[in-house]
Amino acid sequence: MAAAKGFREGLLEAVPTLRAFAVSLSKNADRADDLVQETLVKAWDKQASFQPGTNLKAWLFTILRNEFYSQMRKRKREVEDSDGSITARLSVHPGQEGSADLADFRKALALLPEDQREAIILIGASGFSYEEAAEICGCAVGTIKSRVSRARSRLQEILSIEGEADFGPDAISTQVTNSAALA
């Protein structure tokens, strides 16, 4: 009990010099205070390994120095993301819904008449202009536009799409991934 009391008093006496050393290492008062606190916690936790009669301050300074360099190594591997922009790009919506939606789309696409399917694939998936698609199909530009319009309407009908809100992830998964990005 007396040894623990002496150890505690030794820790308290060392705080000002530990803080000064921590400030000199970290160049930041707040980080220095955190460093001193971590040092004291580790020292208290490991007091059984301290050899009475040896230099307590030197032991504490060694703990503080080691903790500082450990934190520096850790920070090198960390990425600063104060506004959450990096995290937001890392969060993704569940893939299984996208796969299921794609399978449904393929089935619906297969139900379209061949001329409409060809037109929507040329314009929507292949990126051709209406003029280029008309040339490929050997028909007028207006015919391609009509086929694409009918194909889009039919796909919306088959897939039960009423508006833009029906595209992409559902409201729940969007909320979850956005919440994760903000946390």
Automatic annotation (TrEMBL):
It comes from the Bacteria. It holds the Pfam family Sigma70_r4_2. Residues 15-77 form the RNA polymerase sigma-70 region domain. The keyword Zinc does not apply. The keyword Transmembrane helix does not apply. Keywords: DNA-binding, Sigma factor, Transcription, Transcription regulation. NCBIfam families: PRK12547.1 (NF009199), sigma70-ECF (TIGR02937). Belongs to the sigma-70 factor family. ECF subfamily. PANTHER family: RNA POLYMERASE ECF-TYPE SIGMA FACTO, RNA POLYMERASE SIGMA FACTOR RFAY-RELATED. This is RNA polymerase sigma factor. It comes from Nitratireductor thuwali. The gene is ecfG_2.
